[in-house]
Amino acid sequence: MLHRGNLRRVVGASVAVTLLAALISFYVADRAGAGPTRCQQHRADARERAGIVTGEGERVLVIGDSWSVGLGQDDLARSWATQLAGEVHVAGFSGSGFSERASGCGRVAFADRAPTAVAAVRPQLVVVEGGLNDYDQPDRAIDRGFRDLMADLAGRRVVVVGPATAPSRAAAVPRVDEVLARLSAVYGVPYIATSDLDLDYLDDRLHLTEGGHREFGDAVADRIAAVEPTRPAVLPR
């Protein structure tokens, strides 16, 4: 007979294995754009991060980009998502965004990956983090990707976390921020702006240091707690 604590660990491990298997089958090799070596590494990082489950409580699924994966960190378990309350699962892919062509690694946009991740985790809350990789994408591409993502997440509690002002892409952040805030309002989901945060970045001026991840995660957790949705996302009429 399993004790309650052991049962929780078994269930949590089962979910992690299911999500990991789903991601392995989903990330089919695609050599377009960023090149096979880089894309293969992104896929490997995504699988590793998907196997890391942190915290206890309601199931939270983070769908995001390299920040959620923890690119640039020695330990991917220290990405900002670890700071969130609940049993946190991460479905991240470096270079991905709301737009279909934000990444050169195939169909890895948020909307492409959401159905697989949601089916594996069955979360009570979905946190979507991104926007920095949409910096060079037209508004209509962001709009289309956001619409497709909300269709996948309709009926679920959703929070959208926008881009921080990473120095290498700072000029594009206000536009992406505005687009995501507007779309979030249309679909009735809370929007967490993070462009006001002063964070520590690695030398590439795009990815966070360990301290930057911790600070970003703390800020996002606090802001989600202040606006956490009580109603699910809706499709506009």
UniProtKB/TrEMBL annotation:
Transmembrane segments: none annotated. InterPro entries: Ester_Hydrolysis_Enzymes, SGNH_hydro, SGNH_hydro_sf. Keywords: Hydrolase. It comes from the Bacteria. The keyword Hydrolase applies. Residues 62-214 form the SGNH hydrolase-type esterase domain. One of its GO terms (molecular function) is hydrolase activity. SUPFAM superfamilies: SGNH hydrolase. PANTHER family: SGNH HYDROLASE-TYPE ESTERASE DOMAIN-CONTAINING PROTEIN (PTHR30383:SF5), THIOESTERASE 1/PROTEASE 1/LYSOPHOSPHOLIPASE L1 (PTHR30383). This is SGNH/GDSL hydrolase family protein. The lineage of its organism: Bacteria, Bacillati, Actinomycetota, Actinomycetes, Propionibacteriales.
